[in-house]
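Q: what does this look like with iron/sulfur cluster bound?
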Amino acid sequence: MAGAAFRNALEGQSLVLARGETTALQVNTGFLCNLSCRHCHLEAGPGRAEVMHRDTMDAVIAAARRFPFRVIDLTGGSLEMVPDIAYLVSALAPLTPRLIVRTNLVGLHDLADDGLLALYRKVGAVVTASLPATNAGQTEAQRGNGVWGKCLAMLRRLNEAGYGRAGSGLELDLVANPPGAYLPAGQAETERRFRQELAGKHGITFDRLFTFANVPMGRYRRWLETSGNSEAYLRLLAERFNPATIPGLMCRTQLSVDWEGRLWDCDFNLAAGLPHGARRTHISELTELPPPGTPIRVGDHCFACTAGSGFTCGGAIAPRTGASHIAETTK
Ligand code: SF4
C-alpha cells in the first residue's frame, strides 16, 4: 500500500500524524507461532524461523533500563515458542509498571509448562489473550480446527490462577477482531456480550475486552483477495476514516522493536517494511526517545487504525458516531 490515499485523507482534514510523548515499548519477539490465523498481518506461523535471541533481548532490557516506559507489551508470533521468553519477562517486569504478555491461548495451553504461567503471576504481568468470538465456528474459521476447546480450557486455567478474578490484582484482557471482512461492532457492547456468554455458558470471567479491526496486510490481505472481499473492505476502511481517532493512535506514544532489535513506529509498519525514522535503527543505538513532533511513517494500512472507532493495542479510540458508522460487508 503506497500511502497516498491515507496522506490525502489526513491533508483533507488538515491533520499531521506526528509523535506525542513516547511512553510505551512494544516488543515483537518473532514470527514463529503455533497457529496460522487467517487475519495475521505478519504471516506468523509454525513455518517461520524468526525468533528473538538473548543478545537482542539484552539490548531491549538495556533500553528499558535507560527509558522508563510506562508500558512494555510483548507480542509475536507466539511468546510460548520463544526459548528465552522467561528470561525476557523476568528482566523486564521490574523495569515497568505495566508488562503485558500477549497469547493466542492455544500456545499457552499446548506449549508452555506451568512455570510460565507461574512466572506471569509472580511478576504481575497483564495477560492479554486473543479470542475472536464466543463460539467454536467463528473462532475456528479464523484460527484453525480444534482451537476452541483449548481456548476455553486455558481461560479456565487462567481464572483458576486468579487471572480475571475480582480482587486478585491479576489482569486478564481479551482481544476480539472480526472473523470476516467488516469492522468490529462497538467495543462496549462486544465486551458486554462476551462477558455474558463466557460467564453464562462457561463460568469464565475477564477484566476488559478490546476490539481491533483487521489490517489488510499479510495473510489477511491474501484472504481478502481470494474471497473477493478486498475491494469492498479497502473502500469501507477509507470511507469510515474518522479524524477523531488521530490523537489517540498508538504510534503517537509507542515504539515497536522487532526480533532483531530494529525500531518501527508500530507492528503494522513492521509488516509494511517502513522503519521508524529515516533509516533502520537498532534499539541499542537509541540514546533518546523520539521527541514530540517526530513524523510517523504512514501507509494506506493506517486506514485500519482510523476507521470507525479506530483502535490501538488497548482497543477502540473514539466513540462511535452512529450506527451507520460501522457498516458490514460480506463475510
Ligand atoms: S498503522 Fe496505525 S499505528 Fe501504525 S502508523 Fe499507521 S495509524 Fe499509526
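The mean pLDDT is 91. The longest helix spans residues 187-202.
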